[in-house]
Structures are given as structure tokens and as C-alpha cells.
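Dig into what follows:
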Amino acid sequence: MESFGLNVDNIRGQDYDNGSNMKGKKKGVQRRLLDINPRALYMPCACHSLNLTLSDMAKSNGKALGFFGVVQKLYILFFGSTKRWKVLLDHVPDFTVKSFSNTRWESRTRSVHVIRHQAPQLRLALAHLRDASDTEANDKTDANNLFKALGKFDFILGMVIWHDILYAINLVSKKLQSSTMCIDIVLQQIEDMQLYFINYRNQGFASSMVTTKDIASQMGVESSFPVKRQGKRKKQFDESEYNQEILNAEKEFKVHYFLELVDMANSSLKSRFEELQGFKDIFGFLLSSTVLKALDGTQLAASCTKFAETFSSDGSSDVELNDLISELSVMRLSLSEIEMTAMEIFQYITKMECYPNISIAYRILFTVPVTVASAERSFSKLKLLKNYLRSTMSQERLNGLATLCIEKELLDAVDIDTIITDFASRNVPRNF
């Protein structure tokens, strides 16, 4: 950074994924940078933390791991042969089974989405492979095992539950990947996510049962948990006792599968976004006009003091405390009665040009990064650009192609015809 003429003392935020070499509090990059500049506050990547929440949920339950194992086996079976892939497309023309990544949980959303909405058709494709005379013995066995797995009531119920969870989290993850994402929006999204899991814990199992029974009836399989009759003949098995056994099986699944997943989600969200709550304590009074107006004089002074102390080092501070308190006291009286976001307040004071300390405070707020999704995409482009066929590519050409991919929005706005005309005019043969 110093070699590019950048002053490390000007950093007000640092953001990495959850690798220990980066976020380490004692020996990681976070610690090394804080030793140089204590005002470079660390924020873990919100998108990565949200994906790790899903990982925590899956690892907390053996049945959940088994569910994703079946999903992956479906992909392996059909993708391993063009003939089997053709069978899949004949039965499921609208979708294709998606393989998922162990690190990118968004891919699992697409995988589960296919099975959730095309389970009967997928089962027919598996039955076709199982019964086809030209299918190899190993593939017949795999197709038969997967056919049975997709027909189990507990698998279908787990499929519905995971689809609801993955779909809800994927919506939030998409929003968090925006390059303009700010702390106030992230806080709201995470709070909404926690509220979703609280509501889903109370109502999600009952609604999932209704959906599962509907799917099971479409597939022609049993619409309830299988019950062991303990050696009794069907006629000797009391109907009320049978119904009670089904209720017990539902309760066991709810307690040892559904509730475990949801409780792990709430616990993981709370622990992985703990640093985010620390940022709320520092910047909370700046996040909306409603919060700013609700503070009395003592509370406003306390919030400003904490902010000034956080961004002070070696006797210097980014803001002058007393001036910041005075400016906020005057400025909040002129704010609109309609609730304004942090960005709207900043745009307002920018037009006024008379609140220098408030302007600095909001610029620091918007400077602190909350996600590294945009930067991660830059690295993801490298494996597409420099593959084994381009192993001898020069560094200059690699930089140029990477810039074109990373700045695609700017590239699309460029007038290519003008560039071609200019290039042609410079390379006209002399004999013309």
C-alpha cells in the first residue's frame, strides 16, 4: 500500500472472509493492521458469514448431511453419461440437476430447487434408468437406491424444509452482495433473517407437513411417516395406536431435525454477526432520522463521545466532539418528519455544506466495508481467463483481460464502433 502512495493511517475499515489467517485477532492480518492503525475497524464479510450459518446448520444434523449427499448423487448419476443425461432431459425438460459447491451455498439453493419442484419427474427418470435394459448394473443399483430415497416421506419433508430455508437465505445473500451495501441495510437484513427463523420455528413445520403430503400424493408414495407394527398383523394393529405411532414419529422428526436446524440457525446468526452488533453500538445513532430524533441530550452526547473515542488515536480524532454534538443537535431539528435513511441524511447535509463533522462521521460510516463479494468475483475471473490453454499468457495481457471482465458494466457502455474505426485508421496499409 505504501508503495502505491497510500497512507495506512487513512484506513477506517477492513473486511475479509472468515479465514483465520485474515481475521485472526492475535496474528492475523486484522491484528497486524490494527497494530499500525487502531481506527481500521474489522468487519467479517457478511455474505461469507451467512453462508457459514448454513454450513453450521447442515453439520449440526446427520440427516441433513445425508440429504445433501443424495442430492449430489443425483447429479453424479445423470451427469456421468450423455445417455443418462438425455433420460433426465426427457423427463425434466425445464430444469437440470445442479451440482453444488462445498463453499458456495448459493449453488445448493439451485440444486434443491430442482428437486423440490420436479421430484415426481425425477423419480420417473430414475425408474426409467433402473428398468432400462441398456443400463449398467452399478448404475441400476444407484438409480434404484435414489428412487427409494426420493420416495421416503422424511426425505420429502427435509427437502421442503431445506428449500424454504435456502430460498429465504439466498434472497438476503443476493442483497448483501451489492457493492453499495452499507451497515444500516446489513443490520436490517440480518434482523429480518433472525425474525424469519423465529416465525419459521413456530409455523414452518406445520406448513411443511401440508406441502410434503401434497407432494407425496403426487408421487404416489405414503403420505405419512412409516410406522413399525412390531410383529403385529395389519388387522390386529389398533387404528388409534397406529395414529399415535405416526404422531410420535412426527414429533421425533420435528424435535431432532427441524428444531435442531432452526435453533442452530438462530445461534449461528447471533455468534457470526456479533461484530456487526458492535458496529451498531458505534454508528447506531447515525442510521436513521427516527433514531437520531429520539435521542435526548444526554444520550446524544454519549453516542457522539463513543464515536469520537473509537476514531481517535495518538491524540488526534477524526471529529471534534463538542462540534459534532452541536451540529447534530441543530441538524436533527431541520430533518423531514418522514423517516430518512443514513444515505438520505448524508445527501441532505452535503447540500447544506455547513456540517463538516457530521459529514466526516457519515463518510466513515459508508467507508466501513461489510462484504468482499465484489473483490471475490475479481479473483473468480482468474480461473476463467488463465486456464491450461492460456498458460503462456503474459502478465500484461492477463491484466487487460481481467480488467475487461471485472469492469464489464463500463465495457458495455463503450462505443466499440468508434474504437474499431480508430484502430483501422491507424493501421491503413501505405499502398492504399
